[in-house]
Each structure stands twice: as structure tokens, then as C-alpha cells.
Amino acid sequence: MAAENSLHEMLLSDLMSDETFRPAEPHSIEETGLTATLIEDLLFKYVLAIGSASGREIARHLCLPFMILEDTFRTLRSRQLLVHTGSAQLGDYVYNLTEQGRNRAQSAMKSCGYVGPAPVTLTEYVLSVDAQSIRAESPKRNQLEHAFADISINEELFDSLGPAVNSGAGLFLYGEPGNGKTTLARRITSCFGQNIFVPRTVVEDGQLIKVFDAAYHEPVEDAKGSLMKSADHDQRWVRIRRPTVIVGGELTLDNLEIRHDPHTNVSEAPIQMKSNCGCLLIDDFGRQRIEPLELLNRWIVPLENRIDFLTLSTGKKIQIPFEQLIIFSTNLEPNDLCDEAFLRRIPYKIEIGDPDAAEFLRLFESYANQFHCDFEPSVVEWLLNTHYRPHNRAMRRCHPRDLLSQIRNYCNYNGIRVEMLPQYFDRVVSSYFTVVNGVATDSTAVPSNAVPVPAVAHSPAAAPKQEASTAQASNPASGQQSTSPSAVPSNRKFVPSAASSNGDSAAVPTNMTQAIPPRETGAAALPKVPAKAPAPPLATPAENTALPIAAPVVQTYMTETFPVR
């Protein structure tokens, strides 16, 4: 009875599978869509590489059923390209190349160095992407909450994030650094629970394009004891979780095109092809080695039409689907990175703001558990009152993790217990925020290699001399070297020079061979530079008044990108 129940459960599991596409195992060479010559070349190159192999080993390597290769083995034996060198199990044989077969294999290897599974045709790949498109799914709020269950997120964000994920059209996450934009983008793919199939390699016009990439694609094993065994689908395809491809500052235009290796004559699929049916995250958008405008111009048509055109090494243009949820994550203002034409094609723009004090406490509590130390809410409140509020320092979601991590490292180094103590926070705050912000953020975070520069007195008598100094710094033809601290590299130490005749002092670099002479005040002094009149404020036209549109839609579509008209 128990066995019958188990069989019944496995059958229901297979019948209720959420797979919308499952490549069927081919029953003949014709059903693979490949030519006999291509399969023979792959067979020859494999045997040449390892010396000898049984028929089933060859079939397993080519990811093709053994039964459809039996006729091929017989044909190659009759043509004296393969020869038996022994017997194998289940009526199989061990094969080796003859001299003629070795010449054929070497010729095939020179033509193309690919030695791997048999490819699938481009037509099959296009059909598979259409059948497994991410836009076919519509995640609900409970699925989003489950995907983000183990991270801190503002509940109100679900109202903006949910419709954006459902659209599958594109998403702009922007806001201050350290607030979890990348973490959110990584979790979005998990809202789509369905697994998909991707081909290992695609062939078109004789050109092989490798699609499966272990760096981005996570294979999924079939459930143990499943009635639908892995052998029941075409082994040239790999069952994976929906991919999340993440690229950052290393992204170049070459990553968006098919990359061809002239030595092996094998091509690599671009990132948008590898991310089909999943998510493509452009992290730190605006900080790539290419201008944002170049990237946007490359994708403005694919975002509109959901197709992309790529060029093979032969010069032939091919059309592939552009079916992924593209997420742009940036610390910069979207309106400063791209124009309205591109923003229109990314319909959802969501700002990830700073956490409030309550969420900040929850984050400290969560990371305190991870670092195995007692959570002390009173110490967190002391931290806010001492190092945040007096200095108008913004709270970021990464701060609890980073500060507690530094405390743990300090305690482990000194062999003491990890605790949330004020003196520990005093120690790590001075080093952490100095490095993060790049400059001293408060009186406790002054760079150790800087000497304070004497302040210039703000008096009517000192004003002309200060303006003259500014004019000297901006006039290279004057022959005078600038004495303004802002005109000297910030990584040099400054010491006060000898007092001038008027008693003021200037900061000069200590690594200069000659001290800068004091400023002159007589007839040779530079003339006073007239101040530039400030521009009049722009009047706000009456027509810029916001129209009564539904607030949630306007907030994600137009907020912080261009004014509502």
C-alpha cells in the first residue's frame, strides 16, 4: 500500500510539473536537426582526443541516444574509418580510429576545435525561449514576500516592485549606495519559481555558439525516483534555475556581441543571450568602461521590439529573442545617465531609500545573531545619538553588517569576546566612515596624514587679498603659483609658510623645493576680480502643475526622472 501511494505521488508530481517546455529525446539523426557530417566530425574528434572509447561512452559524450548512433558506427566501420579494438558490455564495442579516420579527425579539428556535446539548431533555441519567456509568469505578492523573507525590506516597496516584476519590461533601481539595490535585484529572479531548459551549444550556418555557462547557469537535478528520468529529455539541453546574470564595471560593448575565437573557430554567446528567460542585472550603471549612452543606444531597439540582431563570424546576421527582465542598478540620478527616449523603454523607476531607525535596529539584531553576539538596542541608540544624528550622517542598510564585522575582526584579533560595546563602536566608526566617504566626516575622522590649514580671516581687510589669490590660481599666465589649498593635490601635507607682510599665512606642500613667496599687496598686486552676478531664479510656469494622475503609477514611472506635465 505504501509503495502504491509513493508511486501515485511521483506520478502526480510529474503530471503537475510547471514546465512549459521539455525537449523530447530524438529517435533518429533527422530529428536532431543536424547533418550526419557534423555528428561524425564530433565523434572523430572525441575519439582522437581520448584514444579509444566504447559506443555508449561516445554517445554519452555527444549527449545523443546510443540507439540512433548504432547505424553511424556501422557505416564508419564499413568505410574503414573506425575499427573494433575490443568488446564492451551489453553487446557494445570499443572503437579506435584507423589511419584514414585519424586523418579525417585531424582535418575536422583544424576546421573547428570544438569537442563537446552535439549542438541544437538556432530555430529550436528560439522556440524554447518563446515557450519559457519570463513574461509568461505573473508573480503575486506572497511570492515576492517569500523571495525577500530573509532580508530587510520596506513593506511599501512591494507595491512598486510587484507590478514592475510582473511586467517583465525593465526596471531602474536607484538610490544612495549601501541600501541593498544589488541584493534586491538578485532576489527578483527567485520570484519566478519555474525551471527552464537551455542548450549547451547552438549551431547556425556551420558556426557553433556556446550558450550554457556554469558561471551563470545552475543545473537542477531531477528528483530522486522521479518517473520522468533525466534520460527522457534531450540531453543536449540542461535543466537549470532561471538565470540571473550580473555584470558591473567590467561590462563593455564586446560582451553584448558574439565573441569568436579564431583559433578554435568556436563562438561564445553574449550576456543577453545567456540571460534569456531570466534576469540581467547591470550593476553600478554609469560606472562602466563605456559611456552609458553607448550602452543605451545598443539596447534601445531590443528593449522596444524584444529581439536582438547578432553577427556571426561569417558576417551573417541572426535574430535572437531578447526575453529577460533587465534591471539597472545605480547610485546616480537616472536623469543624468540617459535621455527620455530610453527612460520611456524602462517604464519602472524605483528609488531605494534609507532605512528608518526601527529598521536600523532590526538590521543590527539580525547581524548580531549572525556574528554570535548579544544584541544591545541601547548601544545602537547610543551609536545613533553619538555618531549619526549630531553629524547628520545618513543610515545605510550596509552599516550594521560592516560595523559589526569590524568589531568581530577586532575582537578576534585581540582574543576577546565579541560584544556590542560603545568603545568598540568608537574605534571602528572613526576608520570605517573615513574610508567610505573618502574625506573626514566629523571631528573624530580626520585623515592622519593631514595637518590643519590656518583659516583665512573673514574680515573686510582680508577679502581683497583672498579674491586676488583666487585670481592668481585661475590665471596661469601670471607666472605665479597658486597658494589656494584647493589648487594643490589633496594628498600632500600642508604647513604654514612664513607670514607675509600683512600677517596672513598660506599653505604650501612640504615636498616642493622652493617655498611660495608671500602675496604682494602694493601696486604689483593683481586687480580685484569682479564677482559674477548670480543668475535670476527660474520662474515656475503654471503649466508645470502636476496633473491629478494616480499617485503610485506616477511615483514609479516619472518620479526623479522628468517633470510631470
Description:
This protein is α/β, with parallel strands linked by helices and 565 residues long. Among the domains are: 35-118, Arc Repressor Mutant, subunit A (Orthogonal Bundle), CATH 1.10.10; 124-351, P-loop containing nucleotide triphosphate hydrolases (Rossmann fold, 3-Layer(aba) Sandwich), CATH 3.40.50.300; 357-437. 37% of the residues lie in helices and 14% in strands. It contains 20 helices and 19 strands. It has helices at 2-15, 29-32, 36-50, 55-62, 66-78, 99-111, 122-131, 141-147, 157-167, 181-188, 271-274, 292-305, 334-337, 340-345, 357-370, 377-388, 399-414, 422-437, 462-473, 551-557, and strands spanning 52-54, 82-87, 93-97, 120-121, 171-174, 195-199, 201-204, 207-210, 237-241, 244-247, 259-261, 266-268, 279-282, 307-311, 317-321, 325-330, 348-351, 494-496, 507-509. A five-stranded mixed sheet has the order 4-7-8-12-11. The protein has a five-stranded parallel sheet with strand order 10-13-16-5-17. Strands 1-3-2 form a three-stranded antiparallel sheet. α3 packs across α6 and α16 crosses α18.
